[in-house]
Specification:
Chain lengths: 340, 322
């Protein structure tokens, strides 16, 4: 019965992705048309171009059609897996080509940032809870607030300055040393280096990931520290922890059981945090010249490249929605009390 | 020295709260023989749980055991290392708590939680431990196939049976039960009491904590009555029920509805004192109708006549009417 329930739950959650993305697309579509200018004007810039040629270019890009037609045309294309072609220089390149190289970069950064944030958050939160009321607890609380309120570009620049400029131990931009050639398979450089047994590429790509990964990770970890600490304190005062003690169960095991119970609400936060990652990734990527979806979107905004921006955002939103669906399913599987 | 299983000597436990020091257990001594059922009875807040948790060293800040000794089976429980103590806990002493709804881990199957004590204390492999878990489940009256159920899939009474199963899994010498039936309805209460009694028959001593003197009287060998952190009367169950000496014990008996007070049900007037600043002299004096000047000044000591002990200036000799 539970199995059937879970399947049903997954289908319902999956169907809910459709309206979410439709709404997001609509908002992006409207915002882009409100911005002054259009892709053609952005490319032409201040050059003088005969009006009929301008008309012709706009016609080629489909910008002379009524807005409502443009809206549904693009939607129709996306439904068929076609994200359109770029509308600004270089013109006519399928947007999916950009996504194919940019998305793995963002995914790799996101995975690292996410992993850093969860590890840092769990460790700091757990220590704070176990040392509740001590100076360590206070320190962790301050950490959580400071981390939470850090502004990514500012914090990223400090890390770049300290580790890149003063200490000179870590690169401050890019994904890999340009002199190293790496055969890409998945587009995730660390994974590709391992798959192809390319040690120099592995070292270089990890080095490049540390600073942006830490920047994103630390900023996102603040929320975890706080949540893990508070949950853990709650759980540690629960009756079943006392029962475990009264059965002579070793302390480390009890701590593990407490952590598991404290972790349940954290999983929900993980789903939510993934959505925030889009914003975090844009800021981190621009700070560290990371060639991912974030920098791509920012570049393309200058060109008013409607198709690229719409495509990138829809793709990313779809990805985030799928991840949060997976997180929810994990949550449901881990907590036997959840009823679908 | 006749063989006592448990000896509590002059135990003092305090809670250091922001608003003052709570003297929750104040120089209490108790003894329990092997195979005996001793009930500790008293109103809410008189220190019963504190006393029970002291035995298993579950008093945590702001609480602190500040004095006394607890000897279990010839060993000094409060003096031993945490490691040594953990070997006794769960193996030679089992504990059942009041609220079955919260005393099991919600994320783990009950079979795993039961099996864990076999694995921890006897070093059993998981498979064998689960086998034993199934046996002990059946012993407490729950079908073996519930072994893979989660706590939330069971009723309160069933969960309390599971908690008891875990506590008695290794056939402990002592079972401490802190109001194990208070959260359950009356019919379920009775079956749980039967279950506890069946373990007593197998040789387990029982330290039973309750605010319900009638419930205690049905099953106990001996009863200890606590008031405001003090032991006020203690003795064999017949003595306590038929020949109570302390006015508080009498009050408790009279407030029992159908068994001992068929004509009029009286409850004891007033409330127990604040244990941060208990009254001087006899702590019961503000509520006692026999109280006199001496009671207000001088604290009565526990005096014993045979097995029956009582702490009241007017007990035994004269004064308190029958
Ligand atoms: N953690 C704590 N912090 C401060 N005071 C406490 C704490 N635990 C218990 N006390 C106080 O110690 C006294 C004895 O409490 P205890 O829980 O032992 O009583 P009890 O007889 O078990 O009562 P109940 O029937 O309500 O369970 C009470 O006055 C209570 O307020
Ligand atoms: S000592 Fe005095 S006040 Fe206390 S119970 Fe006995 S008669 Fe009452
Ligand atoms: Mg209690």
């Amino acid at each position: 019965m539970a199995k059937k329930g879970l399947g049903y739950y997954i289908v319902v959650r999956a169907l809910m992705i459709i309206p979410t993305i439709l709404i997001l697309y609509t908002i992006v579509f409207i915002l882009l048309r409100i911005l002054p200018g259009n892709p053609i004007l952005a490319v032409v810039g201040t050059r003088n171009i005969p009006p009929e040629q301008l008309k012709h270019l706009e016609h080629l890009a489909g910008l002379d059609k009524p807005l409502i037609i443009q809206y549904f045309d693009y939607l129709w294309n996306v439904l068929h897996g076609n994200f359109g072609v770029t509308l600004a220089s270089p013109m006519g390149v399928p947007v999916i080509n950009y996504i194919a190289t940019r998305f793995p970069a963002t995914l790799e950064l996101t995975i690292w940032g996410f992993t850093f944030s969860v590890i840092i958050g769990l460790v700091t939160g757990m220590i704070a809870a176990l040392k509740r009321g001590s100076k360590i607890d206070t320190g962790m609380r301050i950490y959580s607030i400071v981390a939470y309120t850090l502004f990514i570009p500012w914090f990223g620049m400090i890390l770049q300055y300290v580790f890149g400029v003063i200490l000179g131990v870590l690169p401050t931009g890019g994904r890999i040393d340009p002199r190293i050639s790496l055969q890409t398979i998945t587009g995730l450089y660390v994974l590709d280096s391992i798959l192809t047994g390319n040690i120099p590429a592995l070292i270089s790509s990890i080095k490049h990931l540390i600073l942006p990964g830490l920047t994103l990770g630390i900023v996102l970890s603040g929320a975890y520290t706080r949540l893990v600490r508070n949950n853990m304190v709650d759980v540690l005062s629960m009756d079943f922890i006392r029962s475990y003690k009264a059965r002579g169960i070793p302390r480390y095991k009890i701590t593990w059981y407490a952590l598991k119970n404290a972790f349940i609400p954290v999983i929900t936060l993980m789903g939510l945090q993934f959505a925030i990652l889009l914003g975090g990734a844009i800021l981190t990527e621009t700070t560290f010249s990371w060639p991912g979806m974030g920098t791509f979107i920012v570049d393309r905004i200058e060109y008013r490249d409607y198709n690229s921006i719409q495509g990138a955002i829809i793709f990313f939103a779809f990805f985030v929605a799928v991840i949060s669906l997976i997180v929810d399913v994990i949550y449901a599987l881990l907590d036997p009390r959840i009823k679908y | 020295m006749p063989g006592y299983l448990l000896e509590i000597r002059d135990l003092v436990v305090k809670y250091y709260t922001l608003t003052g020091v709570v003297r929750a257990v104040d120089h209490v001594s108790l003894k329990l023989k092997p195979g005996e059922w001793l009930s500790i009875v008293g109103e809410s807040g008189c220190g019963k749980s504190t006393m029970a948790y002291s035995i298993v060293r579950l008093i945590s800040p702001p609480g602190k055991i500040v004095g006394g000794k607890i000897i279990f089976d010839g060993r000094d429980l409060l003096g031993m290392s945490a490691r040594d103590f953990r070997r006794i806990l769960g193996r030679e002493i089992g504990v059942v708590f009041q609220d079955p709804m919260t005393s099991l881990d919600p994320l783990r199957r009950i079979g795993d939680q039961i099996a864990e004590v076999y694995m921890t204390h006897l070093g059993m492999k998981k498979k064998e431990a689960l086998e034993k878990a199934g046996e002990v489940l059946e012993r407490v009256g729950i079908p073996r196939d519930k072994i893979s159920a989660y706590p939330h899939q069971m009723s309160g009474g069933q969960r309390q049976r599971v908690a008891i199963a875990i506590a008695v899994a290794l056939k402990p010498k002592l079972l401490i039960a802190d109001e194990p039936t208070t959260a359950l309805d009356v019919i379920v209460q009775d079956t749980i009491m039967d279950l506890l009694q069946s373990f007593k028959k197998e040789g387990t001593s029982i330290l039973f904590i309750t605010h319900d003197l009638a419930l205690a009287a049905e099953r106990s060998d001996r009863i200890a009555v606590m008031y405001a952190g003090k032991l006020v009367e203690e003795g064999p169950v017949e003595e306590i029920v038929d020949n109570p000496q302390h006015p508080y014990t009498r009050g408790l008996l009279k407030s029992v509805p159908d068994l001992w007070g068929p004509k009029k049900i009286e409850s004891i007037p007033g409330y127990p004192p604040d244990l941060r600043s208990p009254p001087p002299g006899c702590r019961f004096h503000p509520r006692c109708r026999y109280a006199d000047d001496r009671c207000r000044r001088e604290e009565p000591v526990l005096r014993c006549l045979g097995e029956h002990c009582v702490a009241c200036h007017k007990a035994g000799s004269s004064g308190v009417e029958g």
